[in-house]
Write a structure and sequence with these properties.
By secondary structure, the chain is mainly beta. It contains 2 helices and 32 strands. Strand 8 and strand 9 form a beta hairpin. The two termini are about 25 Å apart.
């Protein structure tokens, strides 16, 4: 397919609204609620998550409580049908260290109003808020807590549910990670995103201080990720990662992509990735399986609220090779046997011989 056509088609598609877990020493039992069989319309126990008042159980996509939205992780979710608390005591915290919690939420379709509050060690980390039903097959809403400081090695994580009328709250994929904060727009050094990636323990969540809005001009090369990690940006319109290395016009291998996800379970959200460039190495044949000028992935990668634009993967013709190897995945390339999940992303104006927008195995929610 023409590289311009492929990129445009995929940009249009992605621009549509689609709309146990180890983390830095903690292990959440049954973090995605996959252990127990669906209880259907009946209430039941949830392994690792006792109820204090209230009731609930497990549903798969057959419902009846999980009656809308696309289940974010695995095949099942927890439901809480009445006012009460679902909790778990999680160990492995380091006293004095800052953490964040993330999870997915949704509500049953109906006339009732559902509210959720989240606490860690008795301290509110997600304020009480209304949980609306997302509707249709739209993605569940991912919530990230305020940063909290561990006051003990073990803390109770509690989902406090309230509401009125006929309501049920749906929960999935609960994660905790150390909070590493980016404090400036520099490409390297203390406070930069690059340094945060290097310093963050496996399972951490990297977030951004309020003043970190604008463009990171990347002169030091790609950002390499080789561990479980979440990067929670302020929004794709707020923070741009731009390749600023001088453009090579001919004859040399180029590896100026923005992200290289080599291994791990990785989630990146709320960023714009732009200007990445890669080219096929000399004497290669076939396809450039290391394309992905915006993002190359060989791990388990989830991208949410991301813009990937104006990236290009060039084939060996760029290097003057007599045996042509085609550049693939101008925006994003997912390596063999792995998959990238895209949630509410926009992939536009990227170029390659094949797959101007993306190349590989993708799930679009």
């Amino acid at each position: 397919m023409n590289k311009h056509v492929f990129s445009s088609l995929f940009a249009a598609l992605c621009a549509l609204t689609f709309s146990s877990s180890p983390a830095a020493g903690q292990t959440i039992v049954n973090s995605s609620f996959e252990v127990d069989a669906s209880s259907g319309s009946s209430t039941g126990t949830i392994t690792g998550w006792p109820f204090t008042a209230g009731s609930g159980g497990i549903n798969d996509s057959a419902g009846p409580f999980a009656d809308n939205g696309t289940i974010p992780d695995g095949q099942k979710v927890a439901f809480i049908q009445a006012a009460g608390t679902l909790s778990q005591t999680v160990s492995g915290f380091t006293v004095g260290t800052r953490y964040r919690l993330r999870y997915y939420e949704n509500a049953r379709l109906g006339t009732g109003t559902a509210n959720v509050q989240v606490t860690a060690g008795g301290v509110t980390v997600v304020a009480t808020h209304v949980v609306p039903a997302v509707g249709g097959s739209l993605p569940y809403v991912q919530k990230t807590s305020e940063a909290f400081t561990a006051s003990a090695a073990s803390l109770e994580i509690a989902f406090v549910v309230s509401g009125s009328g006929d309501f049920a709250v749906l929960l999935d994929r609960v994660e905790i990670g150390q909070n590493v904060v980016v404090t400036n727009l520099l490409d390297t050094g203390a406070g930069s995103l690059r340094q945060a990636i290097l310093d963050a323990p496996a399972g951490s969540m990297i977030t951004f201080a309020p003043q970190v809005v604008g463009t990171v001009q990347m002169l030091a090369g790609k950002l390499t990720i080789d561990k479980n990690l979440s990067i929670v940006g302020p929004g794709s319109s707020q923070l741009i990662l731009r390749n600023a290395r001088p453009e090579v016009t001919t004859g040399d291998v180029v590896d100026d992509r923005i992200f290289a996800v080599n291994t791990g379970v990785v989630a990146i959200s709320g960023l714009t990735v732009t200007g990445g460039r890669t080219s096929e190495p000399p004497n290669d044949t076939g396809f450039d399986l290391k394309g992905g000028a915006g993002i190359y992935n060989s791990g388990t990668l989830t991208l949410t609220d991301l813009i990937v634009s104006n990236c290009e993967t060039k084939g060996s013709h760029f290097l003057g090779q007599t045996v042509e190897a085609l550049g693939v995945g101008g925006g994003i390339n997912s390596g063999p046997f792995v998959r990238v999940t895209l949630n509410n992303c926009k992939i536009e104006n990227n170029l390659a011989d094949y797959g101007g927008g993306v190349f590989g195995r993708f799930t679009i929610n």
